[in-house]
């Protein structure tokens, strides 16, 4: 509690720079004072309240990071799969997406076109089944 009131005898307000008196003031960090006028920033402010200069951009709110959900090691640990098994799983998922998109992209105007689209979808689904089976066979044994 004794350290809370540094300059009791001096007449200063919290937004003004300290009065240069007998002892030198401690140097402020770059992000604690405005570069333009030298005043201390109010906690959590984005602009200087004296001159209006923008604060450093490093103090902005953190953005949502989608990349952390696609980290290879984290996905392997969550699913409990090895590298080869996870690659087979991703290949199977891509084949399922290709089978779904085949039906959405190609339209059938005749029965022959409809049969061709169905054959392509069957081929994609067979590839997905083969990839998923390879993933199961390559899965590391549990301890």
Summarize the structure.
The protein is mostly helical and 143 residues long. It has three helices and no strands.
Note the main attributes of this structure.
41% helix; elongated; 143 residues; 2 domains; 3 helices
The poorly predicted ranges are 25-30
Provide the structure class.
mainly alpha
Total number of domains: 2
Rounded radius of gyration (Å): 32 Å
Q: What's the SSE pattern? A: HHH
Overall residue-averaged pLDDT value = 77
Ordered list of secondary-structure elements with their pairings:
Blueprint: H1 72-79, H2 83-105, H3 111-137
Helix pairs in contact: 2-3
Question: Would you mind describing this structure in some detail?
Answer:
It is a single chain. The chain is built from three helices and no strands. It has 143 residues and is mostly helical. It has two domains: 1-61, no CATH class; 67-137. It starts with 71 loop residues before the first helix and ends in a 6-residue tail after the last helix. Mean pLDDT is 77; it is low at 25-30.
């Amino acid at each position: 509690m004794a350290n809370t009131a540094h300059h009791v005898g001096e007449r200063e307000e919290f937004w003004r720079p300290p009065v240069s008196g007998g002892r030198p003031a401690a140097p402020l960090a770059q992000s604690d004072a405005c570069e333009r006028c030298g005043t201390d920033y109010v906690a959590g402010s984005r602009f200087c309240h004296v001159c209006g200069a923008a604060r450093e951009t490093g103090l902005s709110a953190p953005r949502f990071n989608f990349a952390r959900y696609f980290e290879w090691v984290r996905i392997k640990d969550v699913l409990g799969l090895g590298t080869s098994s996870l690659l087979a799983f991703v290949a199977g998922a891509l084949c399922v997406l290709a089978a779904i998109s085949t039906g959405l992209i190609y339209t059938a105007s005749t029965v022959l076109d409809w049969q061709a689209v169905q054959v392509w979808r069957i081929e994609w689904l067979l590839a997905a089944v083969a990839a998923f089976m390879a993933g199961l066979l390559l899965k590391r044994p549990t301890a």
